[in-house]
Protein 1
Amino acid sequence: MKIAILGGTGSIGKGLALRWSGMHEIVVCSRELDKAMKAAGECSTLLSDKGLFCSGISGSTNETGIKDVDVVVLSVLYQGIVPLLKTLTPCFSDQIVISLVVPMKKNRWFEYTPPKHGSAALEIQETLPKSVKVVSAYHNVPARKLANLDITLDYDVVVCGDDDGVKGTVMQLTREINNLRPLDGGRLASSYMIESLTPFLINLAIRNGLSEVGVKFV
Amino acid sequence: MKIAILGGTGSIGKGLALRWSGMHEIVVCSRELDKAMKAAGECSTLLSDKGLFCSGISGSTNETGIKDVDVVVLSVLYQGIVPLLKTLTPCFSDQIVISLVVPMKKNRWFEYTPPKHGSAALEIQETLPKSVKVVSAYHNVPARKLANLDITLDYDVVVCGDDDGVKGTVMQLTREINNLRPLDGGRLASSYMIESLTPFLINLAIRNGLSEVGVKFV
């Protein structure tokens, strides 16, 4: 598959690019072409230094990058996501969109601040054309560990979505990353549960002196 | 310590009684004395059959049981909890109360239905005298596994509470159960996060064909 990663210059975006690059064609996207090219180059070099096979990682602007892909990963901040997606609407046709977006703010601690739709995933689904299927996943995989190929991950990834076929595709993409176990989290309306886990996990890590934590359901 | 367990005839109440009975004096409580005595007797027999030391497990009515204890565990259904606690108010002085209570309903799936206070724990704190300190914990430890002493537990227990000393006591009680790791979840106002995990975990188990699941933050 061809996968565009918006916010591909951040840890989690790079991590997904690196972990999927042996099996899929990756387009690292950014508002600025330079940054996207640089991040894609860094990923290629890192894979080549490790002697790992790469199906192709390229850099692109958001507009060009998402046009002809099967999957668009939204690994970006919540702030500004709706205006961003509105400007990108002409570039969407029938892609699968995976939302990692978590609306949260920090006072003394992090706090989940869902929009009136109930979750970022539902707001994103409403913003995009109906032919685009939104799935919610990967909010709670520790970013720096995902981006470090020397670390074997061992986490559960809860996947929410309204289209069972599309959800199955994202669960399969998850299974392709060693030791990530996809779990069906139900419909997109349940996304608030996995989105709200993110600030909760960050607070838990800070309070208890843990490094970034993910979650396992055992 | 002397620990009264309301709802001590259910799996999770029995499980806590069994796991703490080597170190603490347990009072299994129920509305009906017969049921409480029977459950306490079953626990004693089970421990004695396994050759395990027991500091004492007795059965009692709720009213008598909670009077002279250090800790009261509320392992009861949300429905009816407020009227129950109001009738018990004269029996409370300055006990620590551990709430395992989760307000939820089942339509097709389980759904968290917090009261207007934001969580069961906050509502319980408001219902009880101010001298009673409420802590929220143990919602997400699989009940049947807790009650089966042949199973070594390996879960995280997030503990929320407003009094740091009291929260520390409950975290220590948690540590005394092999392989349960207590984590500080912040103030009682954060209890909605761990309460709402319960229906989420039940749904996740059903959807994915898992047996009852708990949680680990890794």
Note: The CA atoms of residues 145 and 151 of chain B lie 6 Å apart.
Protein 2
Amino acid sequence: MDPEKIFGPRLTVEQVEEGNDLAPRFDAHGLIPAVTTDFESGELLMHGFMNKEALALTIETGEAHYFSRSRQAIWHKGATSGLVQKIRELRIDDDQDCVWLRVDVIGGASCHVGYRSCFYRKVPSGPGLDADAPLELEFTETEKVFDPEVVYPGVENPTKL
Amino acid sequence: MDPEKIFGPRLTVEQVEEGNDLAPRFDAHGLIPAVTTDFESGELLMHGFMNKEALALTIETGEAHYFSRSRQAIWHKGATSGLVQKIRELRIDDDQDCVWLRVDVIGGASCHVGYRSCFYRKVPSGPGLDADAPLELEFTETEKVFDPEVVYPGVENPTKL
């Protein structure tokens, strides 16, 4: 599918917010944030970015495609790991500058570290918390779904310091 | 709380991904994306950004604070509308460059247009879809929770074209 055809122009605030035309806004780097949750559990699995082509490919194939900022390339999620994300529902927000992917994950994991979700640690918060040192995170998943050294042999870790 | 004290240094990939220290990564603009879901339903309510101060305020108060890019200011969600987001759980992702807020929303709505969620429209996707014109969105919410002209009188609409 041709992004130039399936994405409409952004003409007015009312058209963007209350209309029926898909008219996404890409930022100065040509990217739109993408939030991916598990269709059944609602769990947040990952947060990534898409460029025009990745969004068009996601729409066309029904499988999540992102744009990898570290590799500066289209990234068909699961192409290396087999952990493909099948779109059950795709949504867009009010001002059309963010998309929401509700997916089924083939193989059950979405995180390159090996956990089901990328969000496997809790941050303490709320009144009464007293801290003058780095806050201590609490793990919410203890078992990895896969071993990243087996699934991504020789692939550089994408995490940047 | 002092962001310089509660956020730790990022020393190694292993420490960031597998450790217990909160060591968030802010981008070149000093921002980290924040994904906000309804604690009970799992519905994605909104996607925003925080700077160091907004994240520290969220942790300290237990209420969502964002950084408004259009206004270039800290934004205590609900300060104008009363639709405060109370943090039930806060999480951070593998490389600590995104946070997940699981919240209860006082008043039941999070979207400035008046809907419960910002993500009130569905994008068609998947094989078999044939399009050479802007794709047609489908509304998933039909009733607004509030009238934005009453809740935000005289406030400029934040949507940018």
Note: The radius of gyration of chain A is 18 Å.
